[in-house]
């Protein structure tokens, strides 16, 4: 299991090289990649009205080699995934690696406890597939959120 937590901006023209460099360190045989990403609910395109109570929510997009069932519905057109999640999924599609991107649409600027809780079904499923003793507890998720809140200057 490799967990790669990206906290800095990666320029668009560097995404391909960054992805190649990370995947060069991995054995691609029997590899399954899961990407957790988030985006503002304002970027989500739908014909229906989205109330504030509907956020956060998950959508998924996966490579053709991914044979498992995602824990949420697929991302609807015309929505797209961009940036690093798209680069990773593209790399996996081209190299026939099983991959799924879980995209959380939320109404806050960074991960908070509610947003991170949205990923719980994904983390629980991952815990079963890698035969971990248990899924991450709420305390672990809270520590992750606290560490990202320290860097946030939204309320300063």
UniProtKB/TrEMBL annotation:
Pfam families, per the entry: PAC1
InterPro entries for the chain: Proteasome_assmbl_chp_1
Keywords from the UniProt entry: Chaperone
Signal peptide annotation: none
Keyword Protein transport: no
Similarity annotation: Belongs to the PSMG1 family.
Name this protein carries in UniProt: Proteasome assembly chaperone 1
Annotated organism of origin: Ilyodon furcidens
